[in-house]
Write a structure and sequence with these properties.
Elements lengths: L8 H14 L5 H13 L15 H6 L1 E2 L5 E2 L2 H25 L8 H4 L5 H18 L1
Antiparallel strand pairs: 1-2
Helix pairs in contact: 1-4, 2-4, 2-6, 4-6
Length: 134
């Protein structure tokens, strides 16, 4: 089952969070497909302050976070899903930088402070490359 759920940003983020939570290995292709799809939604109509936009289904049906919280308002969906999508992109970009298939790790546990700047530069470069393809 793929990560990208074109009908719902909430469902795509849920699938990614499930893979992360249960330690499911993702191929580099799955990671890149998910990152590109999420990044392609940046600034679309309905986005909160130009962030990543939920789909019409998310707005219509509301969203349920991986932890179970329900979001019913348009503003809530746009804001919270936009933030969650940014978090997902950070995790996906970190995993893609390693170019090894496998689990997505939590950057806050794997990075030491002195490397944060180098990581940020590489993450930005990768994000620009992904966004350039969308």
């Amino acid at each position: 089952m793929g990560i990208v759920k074109p009908e719902s940003l909430s469902a795509a983020l849920d699938a990614l969070n499930e893979a992360l939570f249960y330690g499911r290995r993702l191929t580099n292709g799955e990671k890149e497909e998910a990152a590109r799809w999420i990044a392609s939604r940046q600034g679309l109509p309905g986005s909160y302050s130009g962030m990543i936009a939920p789909t019409e289904r998310d707005f219509r049906d509301g969203a349920t976070m991986f932890t179970g919280e329900g979001i019913k308002t348009r503003a809530g969906c746009a804001h919270i899903l936009g933030e969650e999508a940014c978090r997902a992109l950070i995790l996906l970009c970190e995993a893609l930088l390693s170019r090894r298939p496998g689990r997505i790790s939590n950057p806050s546990r794997t990075l030491k402070a002195p490397r944060a700047n180098k990581f940020d530069q590489r993450r930005r470069a990768l994000a620009e490359r992904i966004l350039g393809r969308c």
